[in-house]
Amino acid sequence: MNNLVISDLPLAGLKLIKPRVFEDGRGYFLETYHLQKFGMGAVREAFVQDNLSRSTRGVLRGLHYQHPHAQGKLVAVIQGEIYDAVVDIRKDSRTFGKWFGITLSEQNHLQIYVPPGFAHGFCVTSDHARVMYKCTDFYSPESEHTILWNDPAIGIAWPVAQPVISDKDAKGVCLRDALIPE
Which residue in the list 65, 83, 113, 133 is annotated as catalytic? Predict the structure, then answer.
């Protein structure tokens, strides 16, 4: 029996994962990843690295991507709540430059699969959040790029007006100037 539902989202390749949660008086249990079950739902890439970040309210991380060495990411929140946003940066895609956002939290247990070819970022909307994500390629500092979180050509509706961002993210470029794979 497959204990999860994987749904297509408006940007091709982007997937929403809703695991089955088993709750009782002791708490809850869920599978955060299962190779066979995810494969049946069209998330077939192999994951090679797991990451965990902790951030406080208002912190915005992103919009990040790697080129070359593009990464797919399976993103989940294990504590708190975030607004997760992705931008299609595949030049040959009919949704190039379009974005999708969703709230992920420890309460809703939702996960999002972000395939290679997307820039990814999130903003913390709870007092703090712990975000765990699996990656399909290793982190490569020389391959990392950043698109401005507030690029007006993209127009992401972030839920925080004045987010806390890193110096690196503040130096991101607009999508029109980004190094994007052909």
Answer: 133
Longest Cα pair distance anywhere in the chain, in angstroms?
53
* 64 belongs to the catalytic site: yes
User: For the chain, what are the domain ranges?
Assistant: 45-177
CA of 158: how far to CAs of 59, 60, 70, 87, 149, in Å? 11, 9, 25, 13, 9
Determine which one of 34, 64, 69, 139 is catalytic: 64
Averaged pLDDT in 10-residue chunks for the chain of 182 residues:
81 93 92 80 84 98 95 97 97 95 97 96 98 96 96 97 96 92 65
Q: What is the pTM of this model?
A: 0.93
Active site residue 128: no
**Architecture in CATH for domain 45-177:** Sandwich (2.60)
